Amino acid sequence: MLSEKIQRALNDQLNAEFYSWYLYLAMAAYFDHLNFNGFAKWMKIQAQEEMSHAMKIYDYLNVVNAKVTLNNIGSAAKDWVSPLEVFQNVYDHEVEVTNSINKLVDLAISEKDHATNNFLIWFVNEQVEEIAIADQILGRLKFIGESHNGLFFLDHELGKRA
Ligand code: FEO
Q1: What's the gap in Å between 143 CA and the centre of ligand 1?
Q2: Ligand 1 atom nearest to 126, measured from its CA
Q3: Over the stretch 104-153, which tens digit does the pLDDT of each residue have?
């Protein structure tokens, strides 16, 4: 049985993953509106991944007979002004998520909750990958600057994500 503290922290993380889903969906809508369909496709797939992260926690809470609490996930509406600003937001957001996963791991260790600690390892590894990808795309956007050709090319590249 999970402690109250771990249960609350996992439910908070569940909520944060749903917020990530909503945030990336809002970013997809931003790109769709600009007819950057490749960027939009990349964001929709990213949003799906976030939903799967949320459901991993949902399933874990159920397996260990803990309570799932679905709170308000809040608005993800933002006035981004460029693809560069969007991906800076992605990078900053993933750093925040990484910090919150690390805090969860610290809590599981301090509570000697080995099962939850083991469960969270997948998220620790996933965050390394997510930060690396966000950093790579952000770096490309910084390199491209105001180049329309560069943006067109990157849109095409990101649209290949399956
Ligand atoms: Fe669920 Fe992007 O971390």
Answers
A1: 25
A2: 3
A3: 999 999 999 999 999 999 999 999 999 999 999 999 999 999 899 999 99
Per-residue pLDDT band for 77 (boundaries 50, 70, 90) equals confident
* Neighbour-count burial for 118-155, b at 16+ CB within 10 Å, e otherwise: ebbeebeebbeebbebbeebbebbeebeeeeeebeebb
Structure tokens at 31: 């790109």
d(CA 104, CA 98) in angstroms, rounded, equals: 10
Instruction: Provide the number of structural domains found in the chain.
Output: 1
**Residue 114 belongs to domain spanning:** 4-158
Residue 78 has pLDDT above 90, yes or no: no
Looking up residue 147, the CATH number of its domain turns out to be 1.20.1260.10
d(CA 104, CA 118): 11
Pocket around ligand 1: residues whose beta carbon is below 6 Å from it?
17, 20, 50, 53, 94, 97, 130
Q: What is the CA radius of gyration of the chain?
A: 17
